[in-house]
Amino acid sequence: MTGGYNIRxxxxxxxxxxxxxxxxxxxxxxxxxxxxxxxxxARHRAMLTAKAVARLAELGVLSxxxxxxxxxVAQGVVDxxxxxxxxxGRDGTVLYRPWQERALDSLIVVREPxxxxxxxxxxxxxxxxxxxxxxxxxxxxxxxxxxxxxxxxVAVGLSLYAAQPLVEALRGLVQHLQRVAAGEAQGERLESxxxxxxxxxxxxxxxxxxxxxxxxxxxxxxxxxxxAQREMDEYTYVISHDLKEPLRGIEAFSKFLVEDYRxxxxxxxxxxxxxxxxxxxxxxxxxxxxxxxxxxxHQKGALAPVGLNAMLLHVKLNLQYALDxxxxxxxxxxLPTVVCDATAITEVFxxxxxxAIKYNDKPNPVIEVGYYEQTNPETGKPEYVFYVRDNGIGIxxxxxxxxxxxxxxxQRDDEGTGIGLTIVKRVVQWHGGRVWVESxxxxxxxFYFTLPKLNSAKPAPAEPAxxxxxxSTEKSTGATRLAAHV
Length: 486
Known about the structure:
- The protein is an alpha+beta fold.
- The chain has 11 helices and 11 strands.
- The protein has helices at residues 7-56, 58-63, 66-76, 131-181, 195-261, 267-296, 308-318, 320-326, 342-358, 420-430, 475-485; strands at 82-88, 94-96, 107-116, 119-129, 304-307, 329-332, 337-340, 366-375, 382-390, 435-440, 444-452.
C-alpha cells in the first residue's frame, strides 16, 4: 500500500485483501471437493442404470436377440440424463446402439458386464450427461461468491471499527509531537489506550531531554572553543610580535655589517654574516607562513561564483618575475566558474604554480593548468578536478602523502618553509574537495584537487577572525602575557 492513505484505509484494504484471498482459496478447495463428490454420485447413477440394463438384457444377449435386447434397454434406462447406451455380445458384436452417437468425452461413461451364471456373455456401456453436474457446480460457485463478498464486507467493516482506537492513539501521538516540536509539551506524559503509543511518547521525551542536554554541552563547548580561539589569536600576536622584533634587529644589523663593514671582513666573516642575514629572513618567512596557517581555519571568506580565468591572470602577474627568470611556458586552459572562497583558492593556485616553477630543472620548463569534470565516487555528485602539471624534477611515490604534512620539504632551499602544500590541502578540504599528486622522478609531477560543482549557491557569510583583546607593544609585556597563559 502507498503511504498516501491513512492507517484506517490501509488497515481495511489489507484486511479486505487477506479475507478475499482466504475466501478464494477456500472456494477453490470446496469446489474441487464438491466436483469430486458430484462426479462420484453421477457415476453411481450411471452404474445403477448399467446394472439394470445388464440384468434385463441377459437372455437377449445370450441368444443374440436384438429385439429382446432393445426391449431390455427401454425398460432399464429410466434416467433422463442417460444419453448413451450400447450393448455388446460375447464376441464384441453390437446388439444395441443409440440412434444418435455422442462424443463419449463429454459424458460420464461406465461399463457393466452381462453375466449368465458365472460366465460373462456381454457388456453394457452407459453414458450419463454432465449437465446437472455442471449446473450444480455453478450454483455452488455463485453461492460461495455471495458468501465471499459478504465476508469481505464484514471483515472490512470490522477492521475499520477495530482500527479506530489505534487511529485515535496515533492522532494523539502526532499532536503530542507537534507540541513537543513547538516547545509546549516537553516532559509531558501522553496517556493512551495503546501501550505502545505511551512507550513511544516516553522514548520521545527521553530523546528530547537528551538532545537538549547535548545542545547545552555543545553550546558550552562552542563557547570554550571561542575562548580558546581568542587566546590562540593572542598567542599568535605575541609570538609574531616578540619573535619578529629581534629578527628585525638581527636582519638590520646584519645588513648594516654587509653594507658598511663587508670590506673589513675576511671571506669567513662575510660568509657568516650572509648566513645570519639569510637565516633571519627565512625565520621571518616561516613566522609569516605559520601566522597564515593558524588563521586559515577561522578566516574563511564568503563562497561566491568566481571566474578562475581572471583569478589565474592575477596569479600569473604575481609570479611573472619567477616565470620570466626561468623562462617558463605557462599554459592555462579555459577554466570554469566555481563557487568558492576567491582568496583561499587563489592561494591554492599560487602555491602549486610557485612550486612547479621552483622545483623545475629542465632547460624549457612547461607548466599546464587545466581541469575536467567527473562524478564523485563517494557522494555520486558532480565535481571539478583541477590539475597543475609540470615537467620538473618529480617526486618519489613514498613522499606522495608526506609532502602535504606541515614543515615537510624534500629539498633544502632558502625560500621554502614546508607549509605551502599543507595550506593547499587545508583549503581544498574545507571546500569539500580532495587533493593528491601523481609523479615520476625526473619526468615531472601533476597535482590534482577537486571542488564540488555547484550551479548556484547563496554566498556564505565570512567567518570573522577573532581579534586579540589587547595588543602588546613591548617585548616584556608580550612575554609576560604569554607566560601567564602557559
